[in-house]
Amino acid sequence: MSTATLPSLSSLLSSRRPHHALPAGLYTRPDVFEADMQVFFQNHWILVGLECEIPEPGDAQVLDIGKAGLILLRDDDGQVRAFHNTCRHRGARILDAGATVISKLVCPYHQWTYEPTGELIHAPHMGVDFDKSCRSLKPVAVRNVGGLLYVCLGENPPKDIAVLQDVMEERLAPYGLRDAKVAHQVDVIEKGNWKLTMENNRECYHCVGSHPELCVTFFDLDFGFDPAAMSAEERARAEQHVADRIAREKRWEAEGFKSSHVERVIDCETNFRTQRLAINGGGESQTPDGKAACAKLMGSMTRKDLGDTHLWGHNGWNHFMGDHVVSAMVIPLTADTTLVRTKWLVHKDAREGVDYDLNRLTDVWIATTDQDADLVARSQAGVQDPAYEPGVYSPHTEKQLDNFASWYVQRMQAHGY
């Protein structure tokens, strides 16, 4: 099919049937990818990092999000700031991607120099009448959510980020993310569209057959089941599990640990879901045996039996446990390649080889991420096949996929597509 005869993006969005996967073109077409980047990674709040990665004044993290460059830094007064990584002279990138330490921001092209607060303080050979005050770095809206850093690159950031902050600040406080450190980071390039990466993460229909390491520590019944397909004995077990989960959740809440599920996944701008779930196996952490991997617990935590607090967004997922945290962010690279950057956090005073073994800390999610990368690549190959037709979602195990697809279409249409 020639480009001239391809259906319009708006018609593709309108053709999505309720409770079904998205049409193929929404996963494969370059024009859709460009629209996705503009809508979801320019004009919505996205997870980009962690406050503990810039603990001291002058610390900076630099990353690319599509064509946009972003600088996250802590200024001399200790405030977290974000700027577009483009010089106000002729647009050169000021800093290279990655972690760095700065005293001033100096463009390597013509040595225009900026304070960590963004003000231009040195612009050689521009003449005595040149007004530096109107050439500050362009700021980026940044919100600190309990130690997780979100930015919106657009000029009108959605105001409902306040809901995410209100919900998560209290939930995350005991984990002390601001007093944590990154023990390990792994970047995986998945050969699939970013929406396939997110969809794969939002269901565990596939987990029993694909993630033996992860399955040691979770209860499959937490992720949905079909009562009609169960025997009387299986149904009784499932009903008891749900009753136990509700009772445990109430007990945790009474003890001061927010646990109930909160979700804003449709009819909103800032998409998120959170819930505290019990850990199976050893009952403490997502490790090969379910026991804690780090002897020094996170933040002010004194217990290992408080399960796993999930937090999903439209470009990442997090697992907060008593002994460590797993935080993953998703950055699209092309229509069919996606960066998944996973970080393992421990208490800032925890010592590798003394308080934790790195392999034990990371084994489960390294294996799970590699397995997911294979599944996403298989999905991408499938949606590119001429035989692909959007399939119907399971009402029992894929409800969140239906929500995500519906939210995606809503937000695209709200931005004029």
Q: Please, could you describe this protein's structure?
A:
The chain is an alpha+beta fold. Helices cover 27% and strands 23% of the residues. The protein folds into 2 domains: 47-145, Rieske [2Fe-2S] iron-sulphur domain (Rieske Iron-sulfur Protein, 3-layer Sandwich); 174-414, Naphthalene 1,2-dioxygenase Alpha Subunit, Chain A, domain 1 (Alpha-Beta Complex), CATH 3.90.380.10. The chain has helices spanning 9-14, 25-28, 30-40, 161-172, 194-201, 207-210, 212-215, 232-254, 358-383, 399-414, and strands at 46-50, 59-65, 68-74, 80-84, 98-101, 105-106, 113-114, 120-122, 141-145, 148-152, 180-190, 262-264, 272-277, 308-313, 316-320, 325-334, 337-347. The strands form 4 sheets. A 7-stranded antiparallel sheet has the order 11-17-16-15-14-13-12, with helices on both faces. A 4-stranded antiparallel sheet has the order 4-3-2-5, with no helix packed on it. Helix 5 (194-201) packs across helix 9 (358-383). It is globular, with a radius of gyration of 23 Å. The model has no long low-confidence stretch (mean pLDDT 96).
Major sheet characteristics: 7 strands, antiparallel
What number of structural domains do the residues give?
2
Please give the count of helices: 10
Beta-strand portion reads 15-25%
Radius of gyration over all CA atoms, rounded: 23 Å
Amount of helix: 25-40%
Protein name: Aromatic ring-hydroxylating dioxygenase subunit alpha
Cofactor: Fe cation
Organism: Azohydromonas lata
Family: Belongs to the bacterial ring-hydroxylating dioxygenase alpha subunit family.
